[in-house]
Design brief:
Layout: H1 2-9, H2 17-28, H3 36-39, H4 42-49, H5 57-67, H6 71-75, H7 95-100, H8 115-124, H9 128-132, E1 141-144, H10 151-167, H11 180-188, H12 195-204, E2 209-212, E3 223-227, E4 234-238, H13 245-263, E5 272-275, H14 284-297, H15 300-303, H16 312-322, H17 326-337
Parallel strand pairs: 1-5, 2-4
Antiparallel strand pairs: 3-4, 3-5
Helix pairs in contact: 11-14, 13-14, 13-17, 16-17
Length: 363
């Protein structure tokens, strides 16, 4: 259709978008001010007609519909196919924050009116179609949170994590790798002060991506578990929202439990999980993941026979016996007793973020 339009109306040279628009304006008796509702302002109309400002996808759709100009003529660059006009409010994505974090390389004054192009480009690197379907509630995902989660921010964060995972080099993943013994081996990495980095390396050697990326506003995320679309490799995303050693290990083991029981399965029933672990579990899968994580860190039969009363000495002795960090034991005691004043200096505050030096935490 676009080629036929060009041959009939511009038989010599292919028109620029501005020329095509001016041609239709002349045919319809329109003046530049008549295009303001479609383009945004008199100055923008002038810039578009002179070729100084590129058309946004929103402008192209509107002009194509209102002036009856084939979208391919306005798109100019191949492929001359206008992306589907899905019912997404692209302006709801936290693009200002994404630009500030350098997830999207542009300046804020270049964002207005280009939200769709910027986000489509950002999502194109990963399986953007599946992520976008989260906004329609069509993707099979589970969010553990008591607060209203910003779905647009969730999609953006997930795309960022998957994009970073693609940059990682990991071994080929074998389905069924994550079992009880595997989870216990990961837990033992905690014995070292560099345990989180050792765990990341251990997981990579078994084909599992561990990506650390701070959460976006209004997402309240601690961690996530999903599969890489192309390779099928598991991806764990962690935000280190609470910078404590005990929290890091419980979140990591919780997400590994999801991979073991709920994600690492064949067929279309694989789920993605997004967890705010400040919230008590509300369904069977979350309860199961909590229990499996707790069991991998401190077996229940061991916990039930811990000497009472709990003291720093008891914690240190049990940590040595289990080859895990003492913060994990202190953290479990605090959680189960709901006495968060006790052992507050033993949970490893400010002990995790500093290890991931490539991550920008000042956000």
């Amino acid at each position: 259709m676009a080629e036929a339009y060009e041959k009939v109306h511009f038989p010599i040279d292919k028109p620029t978008p501005g020329e095509a628009i001016e041609f239709r304006m002349e045919q319809l008796g329109l003046k530049p001010k008549d295009l303001v509702p479609y383009i945004g302002s008199r100055s923008r109309v002038s810039e578009v007609l002179s070729g100084k400002r590129p058309l946004t996808l929103r402008m192209i759709r509107t002009l194509s519909d209102r002036l009856d100009i084939p979208s391919g003529v306005l798109l100019q660059e191949p492929p001359k196919v206008l992306p589907p006009n899905v019912d997404i409010d692209w302006r709801k994505f936290p693009i200002a924050v994404m630009v500030a974090r350098k997830w999207i390389i542009t300046s804020l004054d270049q964002v207005l009116g280009r939200e769709e192009e910027l986000m489509r480009s950002f999502l194109a690197r990963v399986n953007g179609a599946d992520l976008i379907s989260v906004l329609y509630r069509k993707t099979k995902f589970a969010a553990r949170t008591a607060r209203k989660m910003d779905q647009y921010a969730l999609v953006a964060w997930c795309a960022r994590v998957l994009g970073l995972a693609q940059d990682q080099v990991v071994e080929k993943y074998t389905a069924g790798t994550v079992n009880a013994e595997f989870m216990q081996n990961v837990a033992r990495c905690s014995w070292s002060e560099n345990g989180p980095l050792l765990a990341q390396e251990f997981l990579a050697n078994h084909g599992i991506h561990l990506v650390v990326e701070p959460h976006l506003p209004r997402t309240y995320l601690d961690g996530s578990a999903c599969l890489m679309a192309k390779s099928g490799a598991p991806v764990i995303g962690m935000t280190i929202r609470h910078d404590r050693i005990d929290n890091f290990w419980f979140v990591l083991l919780h997400e590994l439990a999801h991979i073991r029981k709920h994600v690492d399965i064949d067929g279309e029933h694989a789920l993605s999980f997004f967890d705010d672990l400040d919230v008590e579990p509300g369904d069977a899968k979350e309860i199961e993941a909590d229990n499996l994580a707790s069991e991998a860190l401190i077996p229940q039969h061991v916990w039930e026979n811990v000497a009472s009363p709990m003291t720093p000495g008891v914690i240190a002795k049990l940590a040595a016996e289990l080859t895990i960090h003492s913060a994990i034991i202190a953290g479990r005691y605090r959680h189960e007793s709901k006495n968060y004043k006790r052992f507050s200096k033993m949970v490893g505050r400010n002990g995790v973020r500093k290890l991931f030096k490539e991550v920008s935490w000042q956000q």
